Amino acid sequence: MPAVDRSYAYAYAVGRIRALERRLIDRNRFNRMIEAPSPEEVLKILAETEYAAAMAGLESVYDFEPALRDELGRSYLELKKMSPRPEIIDLFLLRFDIHNLKALFKARYLGTEAEMLYSFGTLSLPLLREAVAALDFRELPPRLRCAAAQVADEFALSSDSQAIDLILDRFLYDELVSSSREMGSHFLEEFFQKQVDLINIKTFIRLQRIGRDRAFLQKVLLPHGRLGPEFFIALYGNSLEQLAGELAAGEYGPLVGEGLRHWLERKSLARLEKLSDDFLTAFLQRGKHTPFGLEALVGYLWAREMEIKNIRLILVGKINRLPQEAIRERMRHAYL
Amino acid sequence: MEIRVNPTRMELNRLKRRLKMAERGHKLLKDKRDELVRQFLILVRENRELRERVEKELSSAFASFMLARASMPLEVLEEALMYPTRRLELQVSRRNIMSVYTPQFQWEAQKEGEEGNIYPYGYADTSAELDTAIETLARVMDQLLELAEKEKAVQMLADEIEKTRRRVNALEHVMIPRMEATIRYITMKLDENERGALTRLMKIKDVVRAKV
Predict the structure, then answer these.
(1) Domains in chain A: boundaries
(2) Hey, is the C-beta of A317 within 8 angstroms of any chain B C-beta?
């Protein structure tokens, strides 16, 4: 068994996470929030939870985003401190670096100032800011350096803003899977691979609807999935039922089947997105009770992400008077 | 109420000329008003149809945008939409409707980056509901510009109709009656003077005849 996955060093962290997990918002409380008559009421219910401190300083319900962001950042940093191998948490934080880079690149090419950056990535904001401003990426980690240089080259060539996102997304998932492979963690590798597959399935359907060609699909598909790019490319252009048929026997069968049914009925991929998240939650839940492993850490991080997603959904829904049903059908399963 | 003038023949002639002019102006303005109203009604009808269509599309775009917003962090959404793939060049020229110069837009979408791609973001961390919103908004953009053009034209025409109507009414109910009254007054005064002169002449004639 690889050292990263199983180690007594995790015992302490797992113990603390058991305690933290208890404070996650449970289904009952979410139900109460969905049934709340106004966004203010939702905030009141949130005040009974871990979010009390973050939500206390809010001037209006519309400003909830920074509070959620701070909560998320707090969780990540807390876990990084307690994890015997902080680099694992760094892996999860990479997403925020990539987000910051995308925003900085776009702002640079637009000639504006980038806003809405995450302050808790692995790389400091001034470092990223300087690197992008000067288009000098020597200070970045080697693999990211290549990706950033590629972004700069590509944009100089085509001035296509989508390319920025595409290159950096590809880098992110490439990095996630290869790093977890290098660390020797099968669990993480599998988790990220599943993520890649689910994103690729969704991208496949989205691109087919938009009507892009096969070459573009090839450019957008993320690498390292369990379903290789060939699988998608061969199916591209055929009916979506065929995709569902091909996947039916595999682990993604049920979620793709139901997601596509919903898509055909209502032209909305919301169901597929929800089921994809639930699928990953279920995957993580299986490892939840491993006493000496990183499963509990990853599970807790994911649970927090889902919790925040749900809170956002409820708050936005309440502010815009979305019917309860519409909120409920998009709610992600609780990890508990 | 008549205008205060010297009751002279010269004044009378001047007034008669003005009256004729006013009547001709009145007729012309009335024709202008009728034509303006006709154009206005056509525009308003088009405008209403267009507005209803645009509003329907927009509300569906906003609904899907809201759903996308509900399923993505604000930061990600903001980043996704930061850099537009299309730039719109708008040229404004004028169109003459009954000498009302309404704006006329000509626009050209300049595509940046890849041909025909309206989605400026990557697919990994964005929700599919954003696609729907962007697609509808992109489709509605042309109609939105057309609507802006029509709406402005309707507004300007309404203003012009109001102005013309006020002018027509002023001519019809104030200027023309007033001039007519004045003309009547001067004619009467002149007639009166004439009769006075005549009587005076006859009187003098009598006096002279009595002396002879």
Answers:
(1) 1-85+304-336, 93-185, 186-293
(2) yes
User: What CATH number was assigned to the domain covering residues A93-185?
Assistant: 1.20.1690
A163 close to A151: Cβ distance less than 8 angstroms: yes
Whether residue B76 and residue A161 make contact (CB cut-off 8 A), yes or no, is no
Q: Does ipTM exceed 0.90? A: no
pLDDT, tens digit, 9 for 90 and up, residues B156-195: 999 999 999 999 999 999 999 999 999 999 999 999 999 9
Q: Which of B131, B140, B138, B129 is nearest to B55 (CA)?
A: B140
Q: How many domains does chain B have?
A: 1
A24 burial level (CB within 10 Å; 0-12, 13-18, 19+)? middle
Q: How, if at all, do strands B86-97 and B100-111 pair?
A: antiparallel
Cβ under 8 Å to A: B residues 105-164: 112-114, 117, 119-125, 127-129, 131-132, 135
Q: Check residues B141 and B20 and name the one with the higher pLDDT.
A: B20
- Distance from the Cα of B69 to chain A's closest Cα (Å) equals 8
Owning domain of residue B201: 9-205
Please write the tens of the pLDDT for every residue from A9-20. Answer: 888 888 888 888
- Beta-carbon contacts below 8 Å between A and B: 126
Nearest chain A residue (CA) to B124: A199
The CA distance from A119 to A124, in Å, is 8
Name the CATH superfamily housing domain A1-85+304-336: ATP synthase (C/AC39) subunit, domain 3 (1.10.132.50)
pLDDT tens-digit readout, B102-150: 888 888 877 665 556 788 898 988 998 898 888 888 888 888 999 999 9
